[in-house]
TrEMBL record:
InterPro entries: Metallo-B-lactamas (IPR001279), NDM-1-like (IPR050855), RibonucZ/Hydroxyglut_hydro (IPR036866). Residues 1-27 are annotated as: Disordered. Residues 11-25 have a biased composition (Basic and acidic residues). This is Hydroxyacylglutathione hydrolase. It comes from Methylorubrum aminovorans. Transmembrane segments: none annotated. Keywords: Hydrolase. Residues 40-252 form the Metallo-beta-lactamase domain. It comes from the Bacteria. GO terms for molecular function: hydrolase activity. The keyword Repeat does not apply. PANTHER family: METALLO-BETA-LACTAMASE DOMAIN-CONTAINING, METALLO-BETA-LACTAMASE DOMAIN-CONTAINING PROTEIN.
C-alpha cells in the first residue's frame, strides 16, 4: 500500500509565517524563485522581484478560474502590467493549464513544452481517463470529473530544445521525467541546486482533500489517479533524487529544502514501488505508454 514519507516542518523552503500576510501574492523560496498556491496546484514564478516586463517566466498555468489570482500575483511581484517572456509547462494536465489559453493570449507569449505533450496542448488529443480506484480520498474519487480534453495554444506552442536548455530561463535545464504524463518535465538549476519538479513527485497527499487543505509536509509519488506509467514514474523519481537538490517546489504541496528534502527523496526513490505505487489500478499492471495510440498520441 502506498505510504507517505513525513518531513519536518522545518524543512519547508517557504516562510510559514507568510501564509496570512501574503495571501494575495507570491511566496519566495530563492531571490528569483517564488510560487503561488492555487487551492489544488502551484504555479511558479522565475525572476527577481521587480523584474519588469518580459523579464520573468511563469511555470504552469493553474487551475480553471485562477486567471485573476495569477495575474495579480505577477503584478505584485514584477510590477503592474509586467508580462512574462514565456509560459513554460511541466505537463498539460487540467490543473496545470487551467487558464493557459487566456493568459497566453492576454500576455502574447510563447508556450514551451516537451514534444510528447504537444497533442494535449494543440487540441488534437485527450489524456486517458483518470483512475478513481487508486489512492483513496475524495480527490481520487472525484477524478472522473476532472477535465481531460486538450487545450489549444497551437499558434504559440514551441518545443523545448533537444539540448536541454530552456530559452526563456538562462541557467536552467529541462529534464524529461515521464510517468505521470508522457512529456512531463522538471526544471533544474545546477548553480544553486534548485528543482521545479512539477508532479514527478509531490509534497502532499494529493488524493486526500484534507491533506490538500492542511498542506502538512510529506513526500509522495505523483498523484495516483492521473499517473499512467508507474515504472517510468519510479525512474523519474530516482533521477531527481540523484541530483541531490537543495530546494524543490512541486506542483502540489509546499516547497522543501535541505537535508530532510534529500533524505525523503532518497527514501521515495529507494522504495518507490512500495511507498508510491498503488496495490492495484487501471494503469498499474498495464501502463498507458506513448506508443499506445489508445492512450497517447505522439506528435
Amino acid at each position: 500500500m502506498a505510504q507517505q514519507i513525513p518531513i519536518s516542518r522545518q524543512a519547508r523552503a517557504d516562510d510559514p509565517r507568510a501564509d496570512a500576510e501574503r495571501d494575495d501574492g507570491t511566496q519566495e523560496i530563492a531571490p528569483d524563485l517564488a510560487y503561488r498556491r492555487l487551492v489544488l496546484a502551484n504555479v511558479v514564478f522565475v525572476g527577481a522581484s521587480g523584474a519588469g516586463d518580459r523579464n520573468w517566466v511563469l511555470v504552469d498555468a493553474g487551475i480553471p478560474g485562477s486567471k485573476a489570482a495569477i495575474r495579480n500575483a505577477a503584478a505584485a511581484r514584477f510590477g503592474e502590467g509586467a508580462r512574462p517572456a514565456a509560459i513554460v509547462l511541466t505537463h498539460g494536465h487540467f490543473d496545470h493549464v487551467g487558464v493557459l489559453e487566456d493568459l497566453a493570449e492576454e500576455w502574447d507569449v510563447p508556450v514551451y513544452a516537451h514534444g510528447l505533450e504537444h497533442p494535449y496542448l494543440d487540441g488534437s488529443a485527450a489524456y486517458p481517463t483518470p483512475d478513481p480506484s487508486v489512492g483513496g480520498g475524495l480527490m481520487a474519487r472525484i477524478a472522473p470529473l476532472y477535465p481531460t480534453k486538450p487545450v489549444d495554444v497551437s499558434t504559440r506552442l514551441q518545443r523545448l530544445p533537444a539540448d536541454g536548455s530552456v530559452p526563456p530561463m538562462p541557467g536552467w535545464r529541462w529534464l524529461h521525467t515521464p510517468g505521470h504524463a508522457p512529456g512531463h518535465v522538471s526544471f533544474w538549476r545546477e548553480a544553486d541546486r534548485s528543482l521545479i519538479a512539477g508532479d514527478a513527485f509531490v509534497t502532499t497527499a494529493q488524493e486526500s482533500a484534507y491533506a490538500v487543505v492542511t498542506q502538512e509536509p510529506e513526500i509522495h509519488g505523483p498523484p495516483m489517479y492521473l499517473t499512467l506509467d508507474w515504472p517510468a514514474a519510479g525512474g523519474s523519481v530516482r533521477s531527481l533524487a540523484a541530483l541531490r537538490p537543495e530546494r524543490a517546489i512541486t506542483g502540489h504541496g509546499r516547497p522543501l529544502q535541505g537535508p530532510e528534502l534529500r533524505r525523503g527523496l532518497d527514501a521515495l526513490a529507494q522504495d518507490f514501488e512500495r511507498v508510491a505505487v498503488p496495490d492495484q489500478g487501471r494503469y498499474v499492471e498495464t501502463p498507458a505508454r506513448a506508443e499506445d495510440g489508445s492512450a497517447y498520441r505522439s506528435p
